[in-house]
Amino acid sequence: MLHNPKQAISIEEAEAIVKRWQAVSEAKPKTFDSPPVKPTPNPYDAALSAIANFHAVTGTDRASTSAGGSRDFSGKSSHEEEESDEKALMEFEQQTWDWYQLQGTLDHTRLLFECQVRAQRGENDAKRRLGVLDIFHKSRYQNRANRWEPAPGELNWRDLPEAAPNPQVQATWGPRLWALLIGNNNYPQSPLQGAVNDSLAWKSYLIGFLGVPESHITHIQDADRSTMVTALYDLRDNHNIKESDHIIFAYAGHGSRYDAQVNSFDDDISHRAGSIETLCPVDRGLPQGRSTPDISDREILLILSEIHDQTKADITVVLDCCHSGGGTRELGIDLRSRTLAPLVDPEVTRRMFVEADEHPRRRPSTPSVRSPAWARATIDIYQPVLLAACQDTELAWEENERGLFTSAVMRVLRSEKGRSLTCSGLIKAIVPLSYDQRPRFSGKDTILFEPNKTVTYGAPSKTSSFFFFAFIRRLLAFLSSLLW
């Protein structure tokens, strides 16, 4: 049943509204250095404030015509028209949520994901709703009037001046650092503009600021699946990496997410797979007939586990992408989110797991990506430090040919204060980045390039408990063998 059908908004009506917004957005200059907005717990008020300001700052007064012939704003002020538009689209959003019989409070990202799945199945109505709601969702990020201000004493990354490189750090840390940097722009659908620039920014920082030899850095632009996986295995087999060294794996590009309730997995994992987060190579979905699958988080973690087991080096993973499964369209020419819808072909989804397990360079002793231990959270593998651009259900943004997250991280790491921050401190220094982009951290809380200086961060992780119980099980097995 539709929500309040007396106020039902037609698709034509909603399309006319967002078409006007796009025209205004394309005419409005955007700047990366604008401070992020102040987050608010009320999405209705946030969207209303965001788009009201978005239209107001353009200085344009739209003609009171009835675009599409479905709404008449004659005689209304610009503010009244904006407010009426806003309420209409919020009603349209709620109608779509109810129409799809989604449970609970309206979740914008979940609704986009549902629209996208239906659109990929060929539902024309869903394609049109996606076109409207995707732009409406992104418009919430356009508010630049309510400027976020840090609390007194908190670090504001935008105000940090760049420090001069420290020769001692360059001499001691440079030779001990290794990096795999991947920036993917050139996707057949929804290409990006800033991912390659992000990977180049990491390369410049590592070489110029930390003194890392260029021979220690593998930098790949627009990598296909085979190239990405091969580069990870090459790190494992690099015998020049020593136990005291540190490895950085930085990826910028599209991400995606596969939900077992929506996507078709193999029978042996479909009931326990949960969500599978992926990195998207530029050849995903190509060629027709035997499409290339994404790279699952399970496959990446297992390869990183092999790397750590072989080299004994600490690993830090930096991901400037998102896995929300949200929309892929842009509001204007400069603002893009780094997420793609999951590939819908069940055969491609199945191969995402099969190719990981059957890769010729995978060690037989490495757990399967289809192991039930993943669902029970008892998988016993190495857990790297992770710095991610946003929460699982949020969007990671790029603007003016740079990723917002990578730009913020670079600003902090190149500052004097950034040298003494732990990973959690670094993340806290750049939160929030926008209305709904909150970077996250997991793993051992170290000063990024001083891994011997550790601090206790929160409660022990489940992974730490798994390692402990795995050790106890091995100890008991050993004692039992002695008794027998």
UniProtKB/TrEMBL annotation:
Q: Can you list the GO cellular component terms from the UniProt entry?
A: cytoplasm
Spans annotated as Disordered: 61-87
What are this entry's molecular-function GO terms? cysteine-type endopeptidase activity
The cross-references to InterPro entries, in alphabetical order and at most eight, read: Caspase-like_dom_sf, Metacaspase, Pept_C14_caspase
The record's Gene Ontology biological-process terms are: apoptotic process; proteolysis
Q: Which domain of life is it from?
A: Eukaryota
Similarity comment: Belongs to the peptidase C14B family.
Which PANTHER family does this UniProt record tie to the protein? Answer: METACASPASE-1 (PTHR48104:SF30), METACASPASE-4 (PTHR48104)
Q: What is this protein called?
A: Peptidase C14 caspase domain-containing protein
| Organism of derivation | Candolleomyces eurysporus
